C-alpha cells in the first residue's frame, strides 16, 4: 500500500510541476519611446521569442511611450516589483548600478562596431552581472545609439555655439558635467517631460540618437540638429530580480534568450535609422549640421572625465574600454 502511495505522490508532484510550468503568466515590458521605434522593435522581438519558447504560456505586455513612467521611475519599479521588464537607456542607470556610469562618458566609443564588441564581450557581461546586487537582472545589451544635439535657437557648428543653451539631459551626472563644461545650461529631466517642455519653449534643445528623433517626429518641435555623436547610448534589457527569482531555471533561460533577441531587434532598427534617418530629418525640414569637428567637442566636454572618472570609481573600467577598441 505504501508503495502505491509513494507512486501516486510522485505522479502528483510531476503533474504539479508540469502544471506550474504551464501555468499562464504575464509580464509587462516598459520603455519610453513610442511602440514604432527601435525599443518597440526590441520589445516585439522579446514578446515573439518568449511566446515561442514558452509555447504560449508566458505573455509579454508591451508598455511603450512612458506608460509606466520615465526611465528612472521604471528602474525603481523593477527594484520593488511593480514593473517586470524594461528596455532602458543607461542614462539614469548609473544611479542604481554605479559601474554602468562608465558607459556614458562622452566620445568613449569609437563607433557602433567597437561598442558592440565591448558590450558583447567580458566587459559587457561583467556589467550585466553587477545588476543582480541591485534587485535587477541585466539580460542583454541593446542599443539606443550615438547621441546628437538638437535645438530651436541656432545651428550648432562649434562648441561655442552651445553657450547658454538650455539643453535637456538625462538624469546623468556625467552628461550634466559635460554640457556645463562646454558652456551650455544643462537641465536634467525624465524623457516623459521633454516633448512638452520643447514645445512650450521652457528648454531650447535636447540630445538623443537619430532613432529617438525619428520615432518622435522631432522635426515638429526642433529646427536644428548637429551630428555630434557625443555619447554612445546603450539600452539595457533588464528584469525585476523579484520576478526573476520566481521563475524556474528553464524559464530564466527563456528570458535571457528573449533578452538577446530584443537587443538584436533594437540594434537592427538603429542601423536602419542611422542609414535613412538623416535624409528623413532633412525631408521634414530640419537643418542638419553633418560635418562636425568632433575633436573640438571632445575637448570641450573633457572636464567631465576629470570630474567624475575617479570620483565614480570607473577610471580603470574606462581605460579597459578604451584599450579594448
Ligand atoms: O531611452 O531619456 C532619453 O533621452 C533616452 O534616450 C530615451 O528615453 C530613450
UniProtKB/TrEMBL annotation:
CDD domains the UniProt entry points to: PBP2_TRAP_SBP_like_5 (cd13675)
Protein localization: Periplasm
Residues in the signal sequence: 1-24
Keyword hit for Signal: yes
Keyword list, A-Z: Periplasm, Signal
Superkingdom as given in the UniProt entry: Bacteria
The protein's name: TRAP transporter substrate-binding protein
Organism, scientific name: Pseudohalocynthiibacter aestuariivivens
Amino acid at each position: 500500500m505504501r508503495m502505491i502511495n509513494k507512486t501516486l505522490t510522485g505522479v502528483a508532484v510531476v503533474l504539479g510541476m508540469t502544471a506550474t510550468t504551464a501555468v499562464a503568466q504575464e509580464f509587462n515590458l516598459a520603455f519610453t519611446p513610442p511602440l514604432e521605434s527601435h525599443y518597440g522593435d526590441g520589445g516585439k522581438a522579446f514578446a515573439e521569442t518568449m511566446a515561442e519558447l514558452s509555447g504560449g504560456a508566458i505573455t509579454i505586455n508591451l508598455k511603450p511611450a512612458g506608460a509606466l513612467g520615465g526611465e528612472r521611475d521604471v528602474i525603481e519599479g523593477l527594484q520593488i516589483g511593480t514593473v517586470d521588464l524594461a528596455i532602458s537607456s543607461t542614462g539614469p542607470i548609473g544611479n542604481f548600478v554605479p559601474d554602468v556610469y562608465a558607459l556614458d562618458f562622452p566620445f568613449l566609443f569609437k563607433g557602433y562596431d567597437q561598442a558592440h564588441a565591448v558590450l558583447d564581450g567580458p566587459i559587457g557581461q561583467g556589467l550585466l552581472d553587477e545588476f543582480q546586487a541591485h534587485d535587477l537582472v541585466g539580460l542583454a545589451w541593446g542599443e539606443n545609439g550615438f547621441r546628437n544635439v538638437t535645438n530651436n535657437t541656432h545651428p550648432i557648428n562649434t562648441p561655442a555655439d552651445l553657450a547658454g543653451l538650455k539643453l535637456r539631459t538625462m538624469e546623468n551626472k556625467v552628461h550634466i558635467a559635460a554640457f556645463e563644461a562646454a558652456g551650455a545650461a544643462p537641465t536634467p529631466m525624465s524623457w516623459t517631460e521633454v516633448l512638452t517642455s520643447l514645445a512650450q519653449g521652457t528648454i531650447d534643445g535636447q540630445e538623443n540618437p537619430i532613432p529617438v528623433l525619428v520615432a518622435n517626429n522631432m522635426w515638429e518641435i526642433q529646427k536644428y540638429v548637429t551630428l555630434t555623436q557625443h555619447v554612445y547610448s546603450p539600452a539595457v534589457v533588464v528584469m525585476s530580480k523579484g520576478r526573476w527569482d520566481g521563475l524556474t531555471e528553464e524559464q530564466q533561460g527563456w528570458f535571457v534568450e528573449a533578452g538577446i533577441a530584443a537587443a538584436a531587434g533594437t540594434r537592427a532598427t538603429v542601423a536602419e535609422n542611422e542609414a535613412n534617418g538623416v535624409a528623413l530629418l532633412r525631408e521634414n525640414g530640419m537643418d542638419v549640421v553633418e560635418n562636425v569637428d568632433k575633436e573640438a567637442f571632445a575637448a570641450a566636454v573633457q572636464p567631465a572625465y576629470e570630474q567624475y572618472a575617479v570620483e565614480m570609481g570607473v577610471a580603470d573600467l574606462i581605460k579597459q574600454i578604451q584599450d579594448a577598441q
